[in-house]
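Supplementary Methods. Inverse-folding protocol.

Structures were first reduced to a discrete structure-token string of length 252. This string, shown here, constituted the complete conditioning input.
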């Protein structure tokens, strides 16, 4: 009998920050057929990066607030070629596989549970969905960046249309501002030119403000330089993101 908790790892938190990492798994379960369509490559080292970020945030809160904290965390250990957690069920796995359906459903059940729990206890929830991309695969003509943000055209941050002058007055804007100051290329980041922008996938689109009141969702994609090759850059990115998220958590 397969233990679902062995492949979908999660922990309940006590601060309003949920870290989701759907594409970092490497386990190719033979019981689950390989997906025939869509991207099947993994986002290498995103699980490790996400855990580093959590450690940083929890330590910062303990040092500055003198309180023990724990982020909500959920990630899949299953290889993306078997299940793509960040897709609608019809495209996420072979629909003949009951095991794939149960693992996929567990991930999304926990996401909903964590968001509800955070809103109940803190009044709001911030969901950070962590992904990876290869910078050399960006479309021709677009600026080379190390971080790409996705907010479903800001709908995952606000259920209402945001006037242009206020579009950066939110967590997305504060992340952009932080990385631009550090001269770390981020998209969006150059408003007067076309950018390589991602709306965010199924998770961002379905668990943000447009679907759940008081829930904010943000997809953040890290280049291979951050995740794998440049340890100094990775540390700078994790520290900078920690600072923004810390201020966001204690903004209210």
């Amino acid at each position: 009998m397969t233990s679902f908790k062995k492949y979908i790892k999660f922990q309940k938190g006590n601060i309003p920050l949920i870290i989701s990492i759907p594409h970092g798994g490497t386990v190719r379960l033979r019981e689950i057929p390989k997906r025939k369509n869509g991207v099947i490559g993994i986002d290498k080292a995103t699980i490790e990066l996400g855990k580093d970020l959590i450690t940083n945030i929890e330590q910062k809160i303990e040092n500055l607030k003198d309180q023990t904290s724990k982020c909500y965390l959920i990630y899949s250990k299953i290889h993306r070629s078997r299940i793509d957690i960040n897709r609608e069920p019809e495209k996420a796995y072979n629909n003949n596989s009951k095991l794939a359906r149960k693992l996929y459903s567990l991930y999304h059940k926990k996401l909903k549970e964590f968001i509800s729990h955070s809103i109940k206890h803190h009044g709001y929830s911030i969901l950070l969905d962590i992904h990876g991309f290869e910078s050399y695969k960006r479309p021709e003509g677009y600026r080379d960046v190390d971080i790409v943000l996705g907010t479903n055209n800001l709908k995952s941050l606000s259920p209402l249309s945001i006037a242009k002058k206020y579009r950066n007055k939110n967590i997305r804007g504060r992340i952009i501002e932080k990385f631009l100051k550090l001269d770390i290329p981020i998209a969006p980041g150059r408003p007067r030119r076309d950018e390589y922008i991602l709306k965010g996938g199924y998770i961002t689109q379905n668990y943000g403000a447009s679907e759940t009141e008081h829930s904010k969702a943000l997809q953040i994609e890290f280049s291979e330089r951050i995740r794998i090759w440049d340890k100094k850059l990775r540390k700078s990115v994790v520290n900078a993101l920690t600072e923004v998220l810390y201020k966001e958590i204690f903004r209210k």
